[in-house]
Fold this sequence. Notes:
This is Proline racemase. The protein is of the alpha+beta class.
Amino acid sequence: MILAPCNPKVSAPGLDVVSVNIAWGGIHYVLVEAASVGLTIKHKHGPELVKLDELIKAAVIESFEPNEMHGVVILEWTELLQPEADGTNTANNTVIISPRRLDRSPCGIGTAARMAVLHARGELKEGETCKHRSIIRTEFICQIQGMTKVGE
Length: 152
């Protein structure tokens, strides 16, 4: 479930305006393209990704009504979806876990949130395979099986 329009912009101290996506995959996630802050998802950039994590999350919470963003605690750094020769889409990511650690797994809940964002953008369709790859190259292979609506 997407909680905010795709790519709302927030301003954080010491950063230019940053586009974010806010999604629910079992918990609230703030998703940010690493390239938007001049970084890639590599170990050498880990300290910088961790440093920017708190600044961007604070900016997101400040930019939205408190009731909308209550509980935003996780930021997921992403890279653009890349097609492989077999038609599979690959998406790199890393999640910052408090206190100040990079998640080594592809992050199951973060994968659900990321797939919701990719689908909302039209970048991942139902039935298409996606490899969601972590900073250490482990991956979840997943698909959106269908859509449903809950409540209003």
